[in-house]
Amino acid sequence: MDNESTTRWWIFSLGLGAVVIGVVAALLLRIIRAAVSIDGYASDIWDAGQKIAGNTASIWMLGDTNSVAGQILATAQSIDGHAAAIDQALTSPAQAEPNGSNQPVTQST
Question: pTM value?
Fold first, then answer.
């Protein structure tokens, strides 16, 4: 091989290498863009998941709330029963004062 032929092969090899490097760089850029896009979607999914978790965190406590509400209802019914008994005792004619009226007896001095 002469010097001119070697130079042509050298230039051809450099050109081919440059083309290969260009193609590889273009493919890498496409991969990077796809990865950034996927990362953006993953970030959106993560944010939505955190919001859902925050909005549903107290659902498990509803069972406790129902239990406490039942206890409050039982207590309120008990208070209502006692209040009715007190009302009955205060307004019943059988419980009238000895002076014949429902007015309290006053002592004269």
Answer: 0.48
